[in-house]
Amino acid sequence: MAARFVEDAPRAVLHTAKELLAKGLVEGTAGNVSARMEDGNVCITPSSVDYREMTLEDLVVIDPSGEPVSGARPASSEKALHLACYEAFEEVGSVIHSHPVHATVFAVARRPIPACIDEFTVYVGGEVAVTQYAPSGTPEVGKAAVDVLAERGAALLANHGMVAVGKSPSDALHITALVERSAEIILGAVALGGATELPADMNRSFGDVYKFLRTS
Questions:
Q1: CA geometry: angle 161, 162, 164, nearest 5 deg
Q2: pLDDT tens across 130-141, in order?
Q3: How far is CA 166 from CA 24, 45, 76, 151, in A?
Q4: Which pLDDT does position 197 carry in this prediction?
Q5: Which one from 27, 78, 87, 151 is the annotated catalytic residue?
Q6: CA neighbours within 13 Å on the CB side: how many for 135?
Q7: pLDDT above 70 covers what percent of the chain?
Q8: CA distance 106 to 183
């Protein structure tokens, strides 16, 4: 298939960035949102701009090598993470890096988020793994994420946060919010004595649905 792109990428990126903050999935200027454009370039949020104040004029367009195409501000310091995902997965139209509290608990503990809820596997693909540790802002973060994103909509970045990939910014945001909600539920279940994973056959079946949705 041709590489997936997002119509009117700047508006979609800006709207999703503000939603990311409104949902409590980032704080201040943390995290970043991007979308692939029809020409193959990537629209991405800038570095160190508060989401509440961000405008379309603040967004940055970079080429697949990370070089600036347009925009007066520097691109997100995590641009290498986004570009690695686009290079590896042509079906991905958007990438979101975030720091949701409960999912990041798992990332810091370096424990995967198990597949315990039907919709979690349908929309994320199954257990969300933790990447190998790499310093923030380095190309190694992207390489580590790609290693675990082939059949998943999200990955936990060791000692950092999470990354989600989707068809569009709204799709990647849905995955981000779903992983965070599931992480919170599982932590609560563990406090009650333990979280029970889905039966293996159902997990495989729901995982097949995710694979279809990801590429359709």
A1: 160
A2: 999 999 999 999
A3: 20, 17, 19, 12
A4: 95
A5: 78
A6: 1
A7: 100
A8: 8
- Say whether pTM exceeds 0.85: yes
Q: List the domain range (segments joined by +) for residue 185.
A: 9-215
Number of domains in the chain: 1
2 found inside a domain: no
Residue 3 lies in a domain: no
Residue 17 has pLDDT above 90, yes or no: yes
Does some domain include residue 44?
yes
How many residues does this entry show for the chain? 216
Question: Maximum distance among all alpha carbons in the chain?
Answer: 53
Is 78 known to be catalytic? Answer: yes
**CATH number for position 120:** 3.40.225.10
**What does the alpha-carbon distance between residue 188 and residue 127 come to, in Å, rounded to a whole number?**
17
Q: φ, ψ for residue 68 (rounded to 5)? A: -65, 140
Rg (CA), the chain: 16
- In a domain? residue 173: yes
SS (H, E, C) 161-197: EEEEEECCHHHHHHHHHHHHHHHHHHHHHHHCCCCCC
Nearest to 94 by CA among 34, 41, 44: 34
Q: Which residue has the tokens 């609560």?
A: 188
